[in-house]
Amino acid sequence: MKTSDDFRRDMGSAGPAFEASVRRTLAQLHANEEEHPVKKLSTGLVIVLCILAIITAAVAAASQWGIFDFLSYRGQMNQVLPAAQQIVQTQVPQQSGATVYAAFTLREAIYDGEKSYLVLAATPLKENVMLVGPDTHPEDWMGDLGPQFADSELCVADYAHQQGKDLLVRVNIADNAAMQGLEGCVNSMDCVLEADGSLVLMIAGNQSTSAAELPIELLCYTTPLDESAAPAPATLSFTLANTQTTASVSSKQSAVFADCGVEVTRVVLTASPMNTYARIEFTVTDADAYAKTDDGLWFEFLDENGQRLPSGASGEGSVGPAGEDGLSYVQKESLIAMEQLPKTVTLRGYNCWEKNRYETHTFEME
Q: What is the pLDDT of residues 148-201, one digit of tens each?
């Protein structure tokens, strides 16, 4: 199976976390105004209150990272709809645990029936401990642990020494369901180090279900960098509400892509405030032509100008067998979130190895 790593596109530059807090604050102010109209306040006072609210939110975001702070840092806030702010789950009831080195809590979550986004905080329990990410090494630049270290010239080991921390402890997260061979929620992981020493991780994963709730049990590991065996993990358990996707459209007809030897039999788009989830089902019709793609076939979604549609906030995609016949495949991808799903979809074949394009076909959707 090939994954989105094989089809990686250039990502936009990271934006400051401040943008996320401003957007959330303005949205909340607007919502409050509609529900409880403000009367007998001068324009100047309203502006001052807005500025104070934005500054307060910015300070909070700087010390308490959430989902949209991570998206903003990665330059992905423009890929989600404003409605995404309404489906963030906070203060989720949870059974949190702790290892010898850190305590773990779920800070924020989103689950839309297709994908979960989790923000966890790991708080060090010992004064001499500095928590780092699952792929962090002592010689790595501190700037890798968040924008607050962008101007630092120190490596992780030197920063820890400067702060009086003589033990670097690596944090890693696993889904207990995945450990048992089931679908897990840990497909990608980002982390930042907050001012108080808390390591905050955003975890995203594919969790497709129509169930009203999604129970999750995470295994939280903390391992000193100078040790090879991980101590017993802490368990963090909680249940997320499924806020559901909002709409779905499917293609009316199939199309043969003769130059790469396949027929696209079905295209499905499913809408969410976080992403537009795309599914393409295709079958090999010409084994020789398909063999020439060397398993590098991918389908691009094009806009009306023939440009590739931007990826969604999840930034993930995959192509893999849809059965055991060796002829049926399915591509899954997330596109930028859309207010309204399109009535037509244009696909173009693409070879991720050779970088060449195949033919283009347009599908009517209903």
A: 999 999 999 999 999 999 999 999 999 999 888 888 899 999 999 999 999 999
Cα end-to-end span (Å), the chain: 30
Look up the pTM and report it: 0.80
At position 326, the amino acid (one-letter code) is G
362 contacts 352 by C-beta, under 8 angstroms: no
Nearest to 311 by CA among 76, 69, 110: 76
Sign of the four-CA dihedral 202, 208, 214, 220: negative
195 Cβ neighbours under 8 A, 6+ residues apart:
62, 63, 148
The burial class, CB within 10 Å (0-12 / 13-18 / 19+), for 2 is middle
The DSSP line for 198-232 is -EEEEEEEE-----SEEEEEEEEEEEETT-SSPPP
173: β partners? 220
d(CA 77, CA 220) in angstroms, rounded, equals 28
Rg (CA), the chain: 23
